[in-house]
Recover the amino acids of this structure.
């Protein structure tokens, strides 16, 4: 077991000048998952990224070899903002590996309470320390050990000139008795860093960094190319920018699985900068022959004119949108336009799907409502002969009160559920998944086969598809309503589906909630089919789109619906646990299996 080694402060200075205590170094990448679990368990924001902190420069004065000298020194300190939690890439401040690891845990616990600002750095940190110790008193021994180690790491006030000595004494007092110091004495130099506290944000530059474990290599299954291309950046030496290496997204721990690199390299805060998102969208190619998407994904297209567009079903529907930065809704912020395909031609089921459809109809026909006789009723369609015979026997034997329930009634064994299927038909669905099929092709086949199955089970269902181009034009394609039969007209609308624009999921989900809430059935399922995460040109990239979609899913739960996401996105484990929950989504690893898997997934949801 490691022992605390008593060292004088000048010995600390000497060791630090030689690289601190490298034999006791603890690396952030080794502790990242433990820190993430702790941060989430203590109520920290799950959407934050865990990123290495860049060094900050301090101008300090210290006495060394009986001389007072000024020097510039860089330290990696902890801080957080609305997007990320920044911790030192490594810790070797103490001659104890356990103490260095405990320092990581303490900083994560402190950061779970929020961000610190320049104007309340001293009081704010003391208050946060008090709050942590009140909420989790089990951390008190750890904090006291870290304080003892930190005080030995810090300069002795006796080695500092007057004002700086008073300031150091005040900092020591604040560490030992949090909340007891209101102001720090001013001095010409910077105070020695307080490694147990959080520091304010230095800059608001764009986050750059490399996501560990993501090298854009081919996937293990079939050698398919990655669906999303990642922005790359080199780590820089500048200490005054909020840059660093991103380890992973803390939301990934919700699923206890893979890393969550929701792309934060761009700033999604200004609509004026939204067009820059274009440069980051995919020229997707995931087929074996590396064939590019046939659309070439051009984003400078104008919206089609009304005379050339699909049929508009009434005026647009204005919907709210959740702004996570304001922690509030933007009322009537989006305009959703219901559409009906003008080019759809009634079509029979494609020949290639008929065999699978016949099998599904046979399987799902067992779910359709059955007529069952309920015996011993007070009234009904006909007499219950068994009940009548028992009454005669009771009457002749004089066995007391005679049973009056002499009828039987036939009732339908009804499945009390309705399903709305919402398909994402954004431009990324124009991607080839093999030499012959695009994502949109397998999506159409999946909708066709699922519809054949639900028709056989007689469960009420509706089909819609969506894409978007900014908040004022969200296209909501009507394929089949709840009260419409599934026939050649519906099949023709499905066959007419083509890739659209972007993926503003929140608005499409909210409109689906409205439609499902109007249904009388007890169980209501919202089944979302998608091939990627939320995105659009204006604001709706990165965390903004993810948070709005997550809020829309929560609205569905509050409305008594069952939202479930089916995706072929290889990176879905990175964001769907946070958006839908760990049990409300499934990733189809082989996209060609989507049509066959959809009916099976529906069966599992409705049992």
């Amino acid at each position: 077991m490691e022992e605390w080694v008593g060292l004088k402060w000048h010995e600390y200075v000497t060791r630090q000048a030689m690289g601190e205590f490298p034999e006791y170094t603890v690396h952030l990448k080794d502790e990242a998952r433990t820190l993430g679990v702790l941060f989430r368990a203590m109520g920290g924001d799950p959407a934050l990224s865990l990123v290495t902190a860049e060094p900050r420069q301090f101008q300090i004065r210290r006495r060394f070899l009986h001389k007072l000298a000024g020097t510039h020194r860089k330290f990696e300190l902890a801080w957080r903002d609305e997007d990320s939690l920044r911790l030192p890439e490594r810790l070797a401040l103490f001659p104890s590996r356990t103490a260095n690891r405990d320092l990581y845990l303490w900083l994560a616990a402190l950061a779970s309470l929020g961000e610190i600002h320049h104007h309340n750095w001293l009081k704010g940190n003391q208050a946060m320390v008090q709050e942590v110790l009140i909420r989790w008193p089990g951390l008190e021994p750890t904090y006291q050990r870290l304080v003892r180690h930190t005080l030995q790491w810090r300069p002795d006030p006796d080695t500092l000139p007057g004002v700086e000595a008073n300031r150091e004494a005040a900092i020591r007092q604040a560490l030992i008795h949090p909340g007891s110091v209101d102001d720090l004495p001013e001095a010409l130099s910077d105070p020695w860093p307080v490694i147990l506290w959080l520091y304010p944000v230095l800059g608001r530059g764009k986050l750059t960094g490399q996501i560990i474990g993501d090298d854009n290599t081919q996937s293990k299954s079939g050698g398919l190319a990655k669906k999303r291309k990642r922005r790359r950046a080199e780590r820089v030496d500048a200490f005054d920018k909020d840059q660093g290496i991103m380890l992973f997204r803390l939301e990934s721990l919700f699923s206890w699985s893979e890393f969550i690199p929701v792309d934060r390299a761009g700033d999604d805060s200004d609509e004026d900068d939204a067009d820059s998102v274009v440069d980051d969208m995919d020229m997707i190619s995931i087929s074996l022959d590396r064939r590019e998407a046939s659309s070439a994904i051009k984003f400078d297209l104008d919206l089609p004119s009304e005379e050339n567009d699909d049929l508009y079903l009434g005026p647009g529907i204005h919907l709210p949108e959740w702004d996570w930065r304001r922690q509030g809704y933007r009322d009537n912020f989006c305009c959703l336009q219901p559409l009906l395909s003008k080019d759809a031609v009634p079509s029979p089921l494609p020949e290639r799907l008929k065999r699978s459809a016949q099998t599904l109809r046979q399987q799902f026909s067992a779910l359709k409502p059955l007529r069952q006789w309920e015996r011993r009723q007070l009234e009904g369609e006909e007499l219950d002969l068994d009940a009548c015979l028992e009454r005669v026997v009771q009457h002749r034997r004089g066995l007391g009160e005679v049973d009056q329930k002499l009828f039987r009634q036939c009732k339908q064994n009804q499945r009390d559920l309705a399903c709305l299927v919402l398909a994402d038909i954004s431009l990324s669905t124009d991607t080839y998944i093999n030499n012959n099929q695009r994502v949109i092709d397998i999506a159409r086949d999946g909708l066709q086969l699922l519809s054949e199955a639900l028709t056989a089970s007689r469960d009420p269902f509706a089909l819609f598809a969506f894409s978007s181009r900014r908040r004022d034009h969200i296209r909501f394609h009507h394929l089949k309503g709840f009260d419409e039969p599934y026939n050649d007209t519906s099949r023709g609308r499905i066959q007419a589906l083509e890739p659209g624009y972007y993926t503003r999921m929140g608005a499409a989900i909210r409109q689906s909630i409205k439609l499902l809430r109007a249904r009388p059935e007890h169980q209501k399922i919202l089944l979302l089919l998608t091939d990627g995460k939320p995105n659009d040109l204006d604001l709706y990239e990165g965390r903004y789109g993810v948070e709005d979609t997550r809020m829309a899913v929560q609205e569905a739960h509050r409305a008594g619906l069952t939202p479930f996401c089916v995706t072929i996105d290889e990176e879905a484990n990175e964001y769907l646990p946070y958006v839908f929950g760990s049990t409300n989504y499934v990733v189809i690893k082989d996209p060609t299996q989507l049509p066959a898997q959809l009916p099976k997934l529906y069966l599992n949801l409705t049992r």
About this structure: The two ends are 55 Å apart (CA to CA). Residues 439-457 form the longest helix (19 residues). The mean pLDDT is 77. DSSP finds 14 helices and 20 strands in the chain.
